[in-house]
Write a structure and sequence with these properties.
Helix content: 40-55%
Order of helices and strands: HHHHEHHEEEEH
Shape: elongated
Number of helices: 7
Radius of gyration: 17 Å
Structural class: alpha+beta
Distance between the termini: 18 Å
Strand order of the largest sheet: 2-3-1-4-5
Bound molecules: FE2/S2 (inorganic) cluster
C-alpha cells in the first residue's frame, strides 16, 4: 500500500483519533507510521502538543523504538540479527559486508530507494544463526554468498 504524502491536517486527524486513549503515544506513532511510512519530523510537535509533552519527550520515544522510522523504508527491507547467538556465528562480518555492498548504515535506505537495512535483536531463529529477514521472510544460516544473492535479488 503506498504511503500518504505528509499533510498536517491528516496528521492532526490521526493524532486526534488516539489522543484520549491511555498511553496514547505509541498508538499515535504507529498510526502515523502506517499512514506516512514513517514518523515525519513535522509530526513531532503536533504529537507533543496533543499529549501535553515536550518535543524532546516525543522525539525520545521515536528514537528509542527501532520500529519507528524517520523516513519511509525502501521497496525492500533487509533485517540482520545482531544479537548474541548470531554475533557468535559471524553476524558482524555479514553486517559489514551488507553495509559496504549497499553503501548504507543501519536504518538507512539506498539512494535508489531499493533497500533499507535494519538491525534487529533476535529473530527467534538462534538455532540457525546467523539469521536475517528479507521482506518479512526469515532466513537462517546466512553466509556471504546467500547474503549477496539476497541483496542482488531485492530489485
Ligand atoms: S540471536 Fe539472532 S536469531 Fe536469535
Amino acid at each position: 500500500m503506498p504511503f500518504a504524502e505528509w499533510e498536517e491536517d491528516l496528521a492532526r486527524d490521526i493524532i486526534g483519533e488516539h489522543a484520549a486513549e491511555q498511553g496514547a503515544m505509541l498508538p499515535i506513532l504507529h498510526a502515523l507510521q502506517e499512514k506516512f511510512g514513517c514518523v515525519p519530523e513535522a509530526a513531532i510537535p503536533l504529537v507533543a502538543h496533543a499529549l501535553n509533552l515536550s518535543r524532546a519527550e516525543v522525539h525520545g520515544v521515536v528514537t528509542f523504538y527501532h520500529d519507528f522510522r524517520r523516513a519511509p523504508a525502501g521497496r525492500h527491507v533487509l533485517k540482520l540479527c545482531r544479537a548474541e547467538a548470531c554475533q557468535s556465528m559471524g553476524a558482524d562480518s555479514l553486517a559489514a559486508r551488507a553495509q559496504s555492498r549497499l553503501g548504507i548504515g543501519w536504518g538507512e535506505t539506498t539512494k535508489d530507494g531499493r533497500l533499507t537495512l535494519d538491525a534487529v535483536f533476535c529473530l527467534g531463529l538462534c538455532a540457525n544463526a546467523p539469521s536475517a529477514m528479507l521482506d518479512g521472510k526469515l532466513v537462517g544460516r546466512l553466509d556471504p554468498t546467500r547474503l549477496d544473492s539476497m541483496i542482488a535479488g531485492a530489485a
